[in-house]
Amino acid sequence: MCEGGDAAEVFASAPRNAEGAAVDPIALQPVDEVRITTLVDNVFDALLTGDDRVTRADVGNGRVTAAQFEGGSTDAGLRAEHGFAALVTVRRGASTTTLLFDTGLSPDGMVVNADRLGVDLSEVQGVVLSHGHFDHAGGLAGLVGRGRRRMPMVLHPAAWTRRRLAPPRGEVFDLPTLSKRALEGEGFAVVERREPSLLVDGCVLITGEVDRTTEFERGMPPPHQAWTGSGWEHDPLVQDDQALVVHVRDRGLVVLTGCGHAGAVNIVRHARRLTGVDRLCALLGGLHLSGPAFEPVIPPTVAALTELAPDMVVPAHCTGWRAQHALAAALPGAWLPGSSGSTYRIAA
Q1: Cα-Cα-Cα-Cα dihedral of 11, 16, 19, 22, to 10°?
Q2: N or C of the chain: less Cβ packing under 10 Å?
Q3: 228 domain residue, yes or no
Q4: Within 10 Å of residue 234's Cβ, how many Cβ atoms?
Q5: Per the database entry, which stretches of residues form a coiled coil (predicted)?
């Protein structure tokens, strides 16, 4: 669905069946700990409480000027917006590495929340984009504004695809499109990969294109369209959608999604098949189960995830309230509400 391209590229981006073990399995090195801090989510709830799995931000984050209060200031809490960004810190022995997975919607939302949480974005050693939709890449401008430029950025080559929403009745909305030229001009070392990538000395897996193997996860409805170079066509697959995977020693896989356009179950199956690790420890991130086109997918998704019996499920961003309720009811011991400023810790 990219502008230009040849037959080989079209073939490479086509969905395919995946049966049996991976032909080229990934030797994902186990880690001792992973911490995932949600810098941007659709929700900020200052009244959520933490436990041994999650630390919550409270309303006291972010003192701002406000003349109508005595003393001239108030506490602003954190921002919530229709987007997603997460800080991922992995520890193996004495070695610790921090990556940024997506950057939220607005140019300043992620950096404002990072400041209010006391997160130093100068420690980020690389950026991973789950896909090219603007609500996951908007915060790159704020990151650049902080002088964070000279770092690798891993994404799928279809992330540059021009896309739009063209409902049968309603105005066409052209989605803002990432500019490779602009990002490289800012100093990002852009790494385009369709295939899986191993980062952080083999401790972090970026899935690349996800095998579509379920019968019920069929992707985006017809209004979601992509420019082919000669016209607009239905883009159901969002082929650039990819996830981040970590293997926590003795616990299993931790899977982090942006929107989960490939389907939550497809993504988990793909991660298990690539790594040869059957145990799903945690699933976090957007699962894109909101709205009439996706609500029929909720029951089979919940059933499949219930069978996997993860220790932690944190649906975020575009999951939708119906799916949240269904997952909370089916997995009461594993489900945790998402919120900007929450840090989830999974340790060996």
Answers
A1: 50
A2: C
A3: yes
A4: 15
A5: none
Host domain of residue 265: 27-59+73-347
DSSP-assigned beta bridge partners for residue 85:
40, 103
Is the pLDDT higher at 107 or at 64?
107
Q: What is the pLDDT of residue 154?
A: 97
The count of structural domains within the chain is 1
- What is the DSSP-derived secondary structure letter of residue 294? T
In whole angstroms, what is the distance from residue 123 CA to residue 99 CA? 9
Instruction: Say what percent of the chain tops pLDDT 90.
Output: 86
Q: Interior CA angle at 245 toward 239 and 251, to 5°?
A: 145
pLDDT at 63: 83
Q: How many Å apart are CA 119 and CA 67, to the nearest integer?
A: 27
Q: Which of 297, 294, 292 is nearest to 215 (CA)?
A: 297
Q: Which residue has the higher pLDDT, 58 or 272?
A: 272
Please name which of 280, 289, 296 lies closest in space to residue 315, comparing C-alpha atoms: 289
| Contact call for residues 118 and 66 (beta carbons, < 8 A) | no
Quote the CA–CA distance of 139 and 103 in Å, as a whole number: 5
Q: What is the pTM of this model?
A: 0.92
Cα–Cα distances in Å, from 178 out to 47, 86, 155, 239, 333?
A: 36, 19, 11, 16, 39
Q: Does residue 66 lie within any of the structural domains?
A: no
For residue range 168-204, what is the model confidence (pLDDT) as tens digits? 999 999 999 999 999 999 989 999 999 999 999 999 9
Q: Which CATH number belongs to the domain containing residue 307 in this structure?
A: 3.60.15.10
Helix (H, G, I), strand (E, B) or coil at 345: strand
Torsion sign across C-alpha atoms 41, 294, 269, 192: negative
Question: pLDDT per residue over 288-307, tens digit each?
Answer: 999 999 999 999 999 999 99
Nearest CA among 115, 110, 112 for reference residue 100: 110
